[in-house]
């Protein structure tokens, strides 16, 4: 407490009065015994001690300083609380609830100082704030070790060693993969080289075989003709010497003639098959209908068979001689294997997927499903040659013709509406240049009226 002697009050009032007639000046004047606002006595000023001047300075010069101080503390606490809430929302600490707890504690402290800057805070509210602050502070210190818990240098070293091992393992795997890729590329290149070499060797072998078949079939025809003439000479000699030929001997001579004719037909078909692709027959854009009619005329289609040809047919891009031979084989096959002496052969066409699909359908006995691919093998016949004459080279030659033209041929499955055999021939459409990968199986018919060719 400030201790000022009574005898010095007038002098003190005189010292304060120039600062203004405040409440302190009035009280000092009353203590000095004079009326309020009276002229101070002409007493010489007595200087105040420094402790007295410092004690009086806050009340006289800056009366709002405590309130501003409280507001500054409150603002700082509230800003720290807001910063802690933002840190908690980032979620990059181990226990984010600690930030909420600490933010609540700091905000309570800030609220207390903010209310204290306005006026005296009730003791009950002060006590409650104190209890809440102490509780939150205690909880904060209890949870602080778990919040700041982190790996030490040893754990960092172990983690680094583990990562280094994983990195080394992955680098080893990467190197192994690189070596495996290089080995695979080398094997792929070697395989391509071997495929090219073997393809060339196979092509050479096929060319050599076809050349051999062509030469052999040509050279064998000369002695074969002699064998075909020999039975007639024997017959003439026997008749000249004995006047007649015994029945058993006549049967043998006829069998020799039949077998010689079969041999000649086989040699001719082998020669035709071998010559395919060796002679000039470039693909051209053509109308297939005239070639189909010509094929029917050259195979001498019997009068008991009718060829129904849908017109107009889509134009094709294929070798003309190859198409003519192909249609001769298919039409002849339909007549030769028919179970009756009367039949109908229908040729339809449709254009789909950049190709023309020709369907040659007969009303014969059909072909069993297990022979649909085998009939295209060389020298294969469904019936004995004594029952049906044939060399077994017809459909094999037909498949080679379609392959050289860039198309395919296969036997369509039989249905209730197509009881006979239906050959599906797919050829490039007019204007096409690339060979076709295949054809879609199925039977399609044209909507145009059929042209009957007796």
Automatic annotation (TrEMBL):
InterPro entries of this UniProt entry?
BphY/WalK/GraS-like, HATPase_C_sf, HATPase_dom, His_kinase_dom, HisK_dim/P_dom, HisK_dim/P_sf, Sig_transdc_His_kin-like_C
Q: What is its EC number?
A: 2.7.13.3
Entry GO MF terms: phosphorelay response regulator activity; phosphorelay sensor kinase activity; protein kinase activator activity
Instruction: Tell me the ranges covered by the Histidine kinase domain, including all copies.
Output: 215-431
Q: Which reaction does it catalyse?
A: ATP + protein L-histidine = ADP + protein N-phospho-L-histidine
Q: Which residues cross the membrane?
A: 64-86, 98-115, 121-142
What the entry lists under Pfam families is as follows: HATPase_c (PF02518)
Protein origin, superkingdom:
Bacteria
Write the record's keywords in alphabetical order, separated by commas.
Answer: Kinase, Membrane, Phosphoprotein, Transferase, Transmembrane, Transmembrane helix
What SUPFAM superfamilies does the record point to? Answer: ATPase domain of HSP90 chaperone/DNA topoisomerase II/histidine kinase, Homodimeric domain of signal transducing histidine kinase
Q: Name one GO biological process term.
A: osmosensory signaling via phosphorelay pathway
Q: Which PANTHER family match?
A: BACTERIOPHYTOCHROME, TWO-COMPONENT HISTIDINE KINASE
Name this protein carries in UniProt: histidine kinase
**Organism taxonomic ancestry:** Bacteria, Pseudomonadati, Pseudomonadota, Alphaproteobacteria, Rhodobacterales
């Amino acid at each position: 407490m400030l201790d000022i002697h009574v005898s010095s009050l007038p002098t003190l009032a005189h010292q304060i009065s120039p600062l203004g007639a405040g409440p302190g000046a009035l009280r000092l004047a009353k203590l000095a015994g004079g009326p309020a606002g009276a002229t101070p006595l002409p007493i010489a000023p007595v200087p105040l001690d420094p402790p007295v001047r410092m004690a009086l300075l806050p009340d006289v010069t800056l009366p709002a300083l405590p309130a501003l101080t409280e507001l500054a503390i409150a603002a700082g606490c509230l800003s720290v609380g807001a910063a802690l809430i933002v840190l908690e929302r980032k979620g990059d600490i181990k226990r984010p609830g600690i930030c909420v707890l600490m933010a609540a504690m700091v905000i309570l402290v800030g609220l207390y100082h903010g209310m204290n800057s306005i006026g005296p805070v009730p003791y009950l509210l002060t006590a409650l704030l104190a209890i809440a602050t102490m509780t939150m502070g205690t909880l904060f210190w209890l949870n602080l070790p778990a919040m700041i818990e982190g790996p030490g240098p040893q754990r960092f070293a172990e983690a680094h060693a583990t990562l280094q091992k994983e990195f080394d393992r992955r680098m080893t795997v990467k190197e192994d993969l690189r070596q495996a890729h290089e080995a695979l590329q080398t094997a792929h290149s070697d395989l391509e080289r071997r495929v090219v070499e073997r393809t060339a060797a196979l092509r050479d072998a096929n060319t050599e075989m076809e050349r051999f078949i062509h030469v052999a079939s040509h050279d064998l025809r000369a002695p074969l003709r002699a064998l075909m003439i020999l039975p007639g000479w024997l017959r003439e000699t026997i008749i000249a010497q004995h006047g007649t030929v015994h029945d058993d001997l006549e049967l043998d001579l006829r069998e020799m003639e039949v077998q010689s004719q079969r041999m000649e037909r086989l040699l001719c078909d082998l020669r035709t098959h071998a010559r395919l692709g060796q002679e000039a027959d470039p693909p051209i854009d053509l109308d297939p209908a005239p070639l189909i009619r010509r094929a029917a005329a050259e195979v001498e289609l019997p009068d008991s068979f009718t060829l129904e040809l849908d017109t107009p047919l889509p134009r094709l891009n294929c070798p003309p001689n190859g198409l003519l031979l192909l249609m001769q084989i298919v039409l002849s096959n339909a007549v030769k294997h028919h179970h009756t002496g009367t039949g109908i052969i229908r040729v339809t066409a449709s254009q789909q997927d950049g190709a023309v699909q020709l369907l040659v359908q007969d009303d014969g006995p059909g072909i069993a499903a297990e022979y649909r691919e085998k009939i295209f093998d060389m020298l294969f016949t469904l019936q004995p040659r004594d029952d049906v004459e044939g060399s077994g080279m017809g459909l094999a030659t037909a498949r080679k013709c379609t392959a050289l033209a860039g198309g395919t041929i296969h036997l369509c499955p039989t249905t209730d509406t197509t009881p006979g055999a239906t050959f599906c021939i797919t050829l490039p459409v007019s204007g096409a240049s690339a060979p076709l990968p295949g054809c879609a199986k199925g039977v399609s018919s044209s909507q145009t009226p059929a042209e009957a060719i007796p």
